[in-house]
């Protein structure tokens, strides 16, 4: 049984039913592969975007590979929502720590007795080492 190509395309090529089904399956497979490739490229670009953000945050050198991945996926790539929330929380915490009130809270949280003990122990060690090296002391 011979059949003209799909009525939608109207290309005029004659295919038998088996050939048409094969071509249709190939088309569907190719289409799914392209969708998977696009999703994979999007994920890679999101990861690259996260790495770029972390490099900026910790002042590390930039990577051309990450920049290229972001450009290949299009410039509309951003961090996923859950990572955006984490980044926002980190920024709020860092701003709190950097403020004067944050510094004062850090001072209040210090164990002054432990610091004094550590300083006294260090001073004693230095003094003993100096006494051993110099007989005048």
Automatic annotation (TrEMBL):
Its main location: other. The keyword Cytoplasm does not apply. One of its GO terms (cellular component) is SNARE complex. GO terms for molecular function: syntaxin binding. Pfam families: Synaphin (PF05835). GO terms for biological process: regulation of neurotransmitter secretion; synaptic vesicle exocytosis. InterPro entries: Synaphin. The keyword Transport applies. It is found in: Synapse. Keywords: Exocytosis, Neurotransmitter transport, Synapse, Transport. Belongs to the complexin/synaphin family. PANTHER family: COMPLEXIN, COMPLEXIN-4. This is Complexin 4. It comes from Strigops habroptila.
């Amino acid at each position: 049984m011979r059949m003209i190509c799909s009525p939608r395309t109207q290309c005029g090529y004659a295919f038998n039913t088996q050939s048409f089904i094969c071509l249709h399956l190939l088309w569907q497979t190719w289409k799914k592969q392209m969708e998977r490739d696009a999703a994979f490229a999007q994920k890679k670009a999101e990861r690259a975007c996260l790495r770029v953000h972390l490099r900026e945050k910790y002042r590390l050198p930039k990577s051309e590979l990450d920049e290229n991945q972001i450009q290949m996926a299009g410039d509309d790539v951003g961090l996923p929502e859950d990572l955006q929330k984490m980044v926002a929380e980190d920024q709020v915490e860092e701003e709190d720590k950097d403020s004067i009130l944050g510094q004062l809270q850090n001072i209040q949280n210090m164990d002054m007795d432990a610091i004094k003990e550590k300083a006294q122990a260090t001073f004693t060690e230095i003094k003993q080492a100096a006494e051993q090296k110099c007989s005048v002391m």
